[in-house]
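Dear U.,

For the methods section draft, I wanted the exact inputs and outputs in one place so we can describe them consistently. I've listed the two proteins in the order they'll appear in the manuscript figures. Please don't edit the token lines directly; just add comments below if something needs changing.

First protein:
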Amino acid sequence: MSRAYIAGIGLQGPGLAGWTDSLGVLRGERPRDALATAIPMPALLAPNERRRAGLVTRLALAVAEEALHHAALPLDSVRSVFGSANGDGQVVLKLLETLAEPDRPLSPTQFHNSVHNAVAGYWSIAAGSAQPVTCLGGYDATFGIALLKAVSEAVAERMPVLLCLYDAPLPPPLPDLPARDVIFAAAFILLPERPDACLGALDVTYAAEAATFADAAPRDPSLAALAMNNPAAMSLRLLESLAMEQTDRFALPMLDGRVTVEVSPCR
């Protein structure tokens, strides 16, 4: 079992515009307004990077920046783990369309945006960070894989780790799975030691036993529907528990195994 502490959170999704503004929804105090997500342009991107950055890059960097500011940590001080099931499907589709046409050269910008670690590259440049970065994808198990990696790294390296999860639907005619019809992103700052401003403690354990969506579904039906439609939104059960400052235990699918998460309030 590995224990880490959460010091900052970033959040963007339909009706979830930032961690602080979303607390009422996550606590069940008001309904979620399922409007399309308005993704803010990350302030830390330079003009050149802003022109090149696609939707998923803006989405991921917005929550990463919010989480770092929430934790009051310098942007260049944390190791990072980025998790996405789809990557940038918009760019992949544009490349495929280009390849299907005769004599249409590939755009270098589109090509470098198509790789799975493109978002992490934009983050490292924008944050001026030379810290290690890991990029992961595991279909619907992406959150479990990325969370286990991030917590383990924070504990083993005794350093803060940014865990950033993001996904957007693939445009047609590409398959509409696993991010089915909504965009969503969440970011967490994980520390090996309890900070003064602690949002919650996580005990994470891996076991070679299968888990299902029901083992990690959010309590609120509206949030559960959102989690079913985006792998990154599987983090909503954790976000609910942290918002309510409530002890919780759930299991995330991780391929043929499971990642069991125990959440404890810091109060």
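Second protein (the one for the lower panel):
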Amino acid sequence: MNAREYNFDGLVGPSHNYAGLSFGNVASFNNVRSASNPRQAALQGLAKMRELAARGYAQAVMPPQGRPNFRLLRRLGFSGTDADVLARAWREAPVILACAYSAAPMWTANAATVSPSADTLDGRVHFTAANLNNKLHRSEEYVQATRTLRAIFGNGDRFVVHDALPPVPAFGDEGAANHTRFAAGHGAAGVEFFVYGRVEFDPSAPAPKKYPARQTLEASQAIARLHGLDPARTVFASQNPDVIDQGVFHNDVIAVGNGNVLFYHEQAFADEAGTVDALRRALAGVEADLVPVRVAGSQVPVADAVASYLFNSQLLTRADGRMALVVPHECRENAAVSSYLNGMVGSGGPIEELVEFDLRQSMRNGGGPACLRLRVVLTEEEAAAMHGGVIMTETLYARLVAWVEKHYRDRIEPKDLADPQLAIECAAALEELTRILELPGLYDLS
């Protein structure tokens, strides 16, 4: 079956700011309350989308979510006009105001888990928006994420967009940041790989001691059931709790997969040998051979992997069947990582090419190239059935750049979140964006 992988990159919103809300995300915490540049952040993301589209990869845009989240603020007791709400929240609970202004939806790897039609029982593409209930600032993202996915993938004959799992600790779900698909080709039947950080109903299971484990086994199992996945082609594995405590808050900070290749750090999984063997056996069932690319701690310590986001890179299949690794510039600024990459490329392994991008604004907020994109495998018929206004083209790129330059500030400091004018600017920007992307009624900002 002919199919392509579409990367839906999150378009950075006009309120992009550094609030340091994500305990366990070292980069986010390191830049807490510093000044951000929303215009630069959005333009950096758009430049990446444009370049990858020009290289022949299927590229699309995931629109930002509405900010500030006035519904959250009013539910928490802040009342009056919008200006009153912002002023009181800034005065009495600035952290809650920062949560309402969170820039985190830009990382669409957390938006949902996606299973292509080649893997599902009913032959449709399945989506489940992540409930992200581990953090207040992310816990309401699923409302708009579900709304957006249903707007883009509204054809019920081809797509199913499930409601998010119950937003309780037992079903903590972080989306595709803890999910990878392996297959001989995008259109072939594949193996879906779920990585979890803890087990809710087994207190004896390993768990981190310092930072929270955000994904549960129970959530991963529920999504596999919802999507109608074949148990013989579904693998569950535990993260290494020790690396979670070193800042590996999602599996995509320590491992990335594509096709039949798993690029991973030796400390990624609680049972490295067992995990690799389970994937190898499952892939054999779909006539594919797993190609593990293992990075030893002696080559790249975990701290360097986290600082550079080496594994939070995109692994893409080129037209010639070889693979390209899309990395942030920070990988070249870290001596251990840069040395490893120099030795890897051209060594005869499956990764043939490095593609580097300046994503400094995203990196400072705790997300690299892989965080910015949601992978959606679509056949030609499915691609024709989705909303086409979000597909990246030169025309769309030019319109979005002009839109960013018109609406985005070049500096936001923490105190600016109390400015009613910023909220007005954000609403005006999103209203115009719905016309550009041809998605009327996308937002409910009441």
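Candidate sentences for the figure legend, describing the second protein: The CA atoms of residues 126 and 160 lie 5 Å apart. The mean pLDDT is 94.

Thanks,
Y.
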